[in-house]
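Final report, closing paragraph on structural work. Over the funding period we assembled a curated collection of sequence-structure pairs, and we close with a single example.
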Amino acid sequence: MKNILSLAVIFFLGLGFVSHANAQKISLPSPDFKKDMLGALTPGSDVSLSDSQKSELKQSNESFLNDVLKIAGGSDSDEEKKKSILNLGKKQSSAFEKILGEDKAKSYKKSVKKKIRPFKTKYKLATFIL
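Its predicted structure, as stored:
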């Protein structure tokens, strides 16, 4: 009986490691990813922006997400993809400050992080954005 129990425990631990390893894979998400992320990156009413700032921000976010999707669909290792996406996120944060100014960029990033949070379980890739 102890042998069967031990084997069962080892089996379930093994399954846990295998599923964890598969969960770390970075690949192209569903087609809804870009639409959902653009929605999350759209500034809310809590950040007052001019029309030109909104337009420039939208264009920057679309370009950013296109680059993220190119990286995710590439043939690099998962570690390289992760590193590239994180570096891209840092550049995008700098773009926010350039477009919005430091104070508005901080409140915008805070707002975006709240909006992205629910997507982190749906899209592994969302955990690396910002």
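The chain has six helices and no strands. Residues 26-128 form one domain. We thank the funder for supporting this effort.
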